[in-house]
Amino acid sequence: MATTRRRTQSRSARRPDAVAAAHAPQRPLDLLAALRDMTLIRLFEQEAERQYKRARIGGYCHLAIGQEAATVGAVAALQPQDKLLTSYRSHGFALARGTSPQAVMAELFGREDGCAAGRGGSMHLLDPDRGYLGGWGIVAGQLPIATGVALAGVKRGEKMAVLCELGDGAVNMGAWHEALNLAAVWRLPVVFAVFNNGYGMGTTVDQASAEPEIHKRAAAFRMPGERVDGQDVEAVHAAADALLQRAREDRQPAVLEVMTYRLRGHSVADAGTAYRTKDEVEEWASKRDPLALATQKLLAAGVAEGELDAVAREAQEAVDAAVAFADASPQPSVDTLAEFVYGDPRTAEQFARMAPGAPAGEAQVIAQLQQAA
Amino acid sequence: MASETAAGVETMTYREALRLAMREELERDPSVFLMGEEIGVFQGSYKVTAGLFDDFGPERVMETPISEEGFVGAAVGAAMSGMRPVAEIMTLNFILVAMDQVVNHAAKVRYMFGGQVGVPLVIRTPNGAGNQLTAQHSQSFEGWFANVPGLKVVAPATPADARGLLKAAIRDDDPVLVVENLQLYKAKGEVDTSVDGEVPIGLARVARAGTDLTLVAHSFAVTRCLHVAEQLQDEHGISAEVVDLRSLRPLDMETVAASVAKTNRALCVEEGWASYGVTAEVASRISTACFDDLDAPVGRVGMAEVPMPYAKSLEDAALPHEAKILSAALEVCGA
Ligand SMILES: Cc1ncc(C[n+]2csc(CCOP(=O)(O)OP(=O)(O)O)c2C)c(N)n1
């Protein structure tokens, strides 16, 4: 009982506003570098869209065109030791975290050199070396996992934080409540970044959520909850940076609601017009395009146009190289189908023997294993 | 759209047949209502419910947030209270987050409370693989559900059965899982719309007659088996009978056993993992019921026992393709 009370007191004493002030962003964003990342992501995704339509990319392909500032701003606030988990709308996250466009495009092409060895495709990118622990395909499935990643960080005494991206549609799942509650009662350093793009497929946030101002729901877990303009990369970065710092330093979990918009449909297969007007999309495209907004700021700050042209040119070159690389990478060999089901490669033989129609003879395999051991 | 062929018989897709069943039942019984993600304005993520929201309105065609556990549980409650909800789960993969409501609650209510109240709930959902949708979106779990007493599980393979079994499921007083298949939505077939067309739950169907080998399957595997049966006939002179289970729980062993008594050989095929799967059950039952009739061990074919990979080369290798069924069939026939 005593422990519980102490914990409750200390948590309520941590007033969001007061602490936020104590953790003003320490690493200002390099806006030109951010524009570089955003441009790369934009051109990469436009290329992915073309390649999908040419059937070089299969399965589901969820683009985040229009959401680049949200992605880049949030990822730029991560430190090398931090971890990142995302939903299935994840190309930009891998790129922003530094995964090579080649490895990502090869994954979309389902090739051996893809960042998930051609097993995962668009929804399941991964780059553990850069702390990117996956794109996940079941809505809200990644939330409890992110909590566990933070738990491991705490248990190992690391000063780290986890950024977990999710969509506005994920906040009505049971996993949201369970993950946030655990993060709060165990004081885990996770920032749940809700990318509120207004829609979950065709359902608006208002239709889906009794409290559509998602950041306010953080109050139910006594966490800070903030809302930020997701088209302004500097604003996203500043908010994410402050919350991630508090996570690292005070083990304070938080909700960051990033207000953004996807200019394309839910996936390449969805025209995105059945549930919203062309005017609405046009309004966001013409007035709130995050790349245009960042460009304007840089021009106003005196950056030369030539420099910005170079940004676009280099990004296009990187995307072209990615396609060429993906094209040249082989399809995974059929012989490797059962690779990665289990960690011990010898297990595969046991399972092959167990398959329907296979000869019995487990004892023989076990004997071999024992001999080898 | 559906086109007329003979008096009352229309050619329509599997998808249209499901839609027709829902339309007919919504019109017939005011206690029927639909619920699910994106089944309204979006017209259904696989367009099965297209048009129903416009015609029946938001009270009868309820759009839900992404909250499978919540709305399936709500459907259980509504079903216990005199309604007949038809809940669409966008794909079978997502039912796992609602598994507790389905298995621990819906399936148990009638028995656990001494038969006083039932759960006339339908959950319809597509499953299957073949579109490079990867591990979390390419699964066939019907065997898991067929394992649970208290649930009924049907898996239609044709448009006529899609309409007929869904109607039977909606009228059933117990929870029924209707497993559809993504690969079948576009499949066309004849549906006699001049009759009510209910297909009783628990009856298998001989989809093709034959004398040398029985191929037992359900859902999309039936389509594969019918093609293999043609090949067996044309290229090997083997006459295969194809039994479409239609219902997995209850399971019609009588039709299966009668076929095996005639052919003396059986191969069971499914889209899911065969270990501990539907074919495991059916093969075991054949071995018991038809022991004296069998001229060869019962064969089985399922998906490779791996999570579904994304790469096309690997996905193709994992699926229970016709070539695999054919070679397994030849093995059972000793050919
Ligand atoms: C548990 C579960 N239910 C349904 C789906 C199908 N689905 C995939 S994405 C999606 C919409 C999610 O919207 P949101 O969380 O707002 O993210 P956004 O797509 O807008 O980025 C749905 C319903 C799923 N993948 N998992």
Please explain how this structure is put together.
The complex is a heterodimer of chains A (373) and B (335). Chain A has 373 residues and is an alpha/beta fold. Chain A contains 15 helices and eight strands. Chain A has helices at residues 2-13, 16-22, 31-53, 68-76, 91-97, 101-108, 142-155, 174-185, 205-208, 233-250, 278-287, 290-300, 305-328, 347-354, 362-372, and strands at 83-86, 132-135, 162-167, 190-196, 199-200, 203-204, 225-229, 254-259. In chain A, α3 (31-53) packs across α4 (68-76) and α6 packs across α13 (305-328). Chain A is globular, with a radius of gyration of 22 Å. The termini of chain A are far apart. Chain B has 335 residues and is α/β, with parallel strands linked by helices. Chain B contains twelve helices and 15 strands. Classes of the chains: A alpha/beta (373), B alpha/beta (335). At the A-B interface, loops of A face α3, α10, β15 and α11 of B. Thiamine diphosphate sits between chains A (89, 137-139, 167-170, 197, 199-201, 266) and B (37, 66, 68, 90, 94, 97). Chain B: Its EC number is 1.2.4.4. Chain B: InterPro entries: THDP-binding, Transketo_C/PFOR_II, Transketolase-like_Pyr-bd, Transketolase_C.
